[in-house]
Design brief:
Length: about 130
């Protein structure tokens, strides 16, 4: 698959975090993937639908946990129920163990990274989750 057909979606209610994530992912992964961003779980669900209609495969969603209206574990479970092949990661400064366990059990959460994160560690986790060299 080409870059034009594979995406990574970052979800966080803080725009500065999304901008930083997008920049770091582009620095670490080059143009291997389309990097998308959403400021809420609801917007992220719309982005996944849109990409799907455009025949762009969302490979990975990296979501914050503490967001208004829908927590990250709830969001990732919803995504997993509809799109079980999308890998999931959580990147958050605030989370409780029960939420992580919930996401592992019901959304097959592949990794949890605490904020602030290390750019190289994040890239290594993504490469591991996506089985990239």
């Amino acid at each position: 698959m080409s870059k034009q057909s594979q995406a990574i979606l970052c979800v966080d209610d803080e725009v500065i975090i999304l901008n930083s994530l997008k920049t770091q992912l582009q620095n670490q992964l080059g143009d291997a993937f389309i990097i998308e961003a959403a400021e809420s779980a609801e917007e992220a669900l719309e982005v996944v639908e849109f990409l799907n209609k455009k025949q762009i495969k969302t490979l990975l969603i990296i979501s914050d946990w503490l967001m208004p209206r829908m927590k990250g574990d709830e969001f990732l479970i919803k995504v997993h129920q509809k799109y079980p092949n999308i890998a999931t990661m959580m990147l958050s400064g605030h989370v409780d163990k029960a939420a992580i366990d919930n996401a592992i059990k019901h959304a097959q959460l592949k990794a949890f990274i605490s904020k602030p994160w290390d750019e190289k560690d994040l890239a290594a986790q993504i490469k591991k989750v996506l089985a990239l060299p």
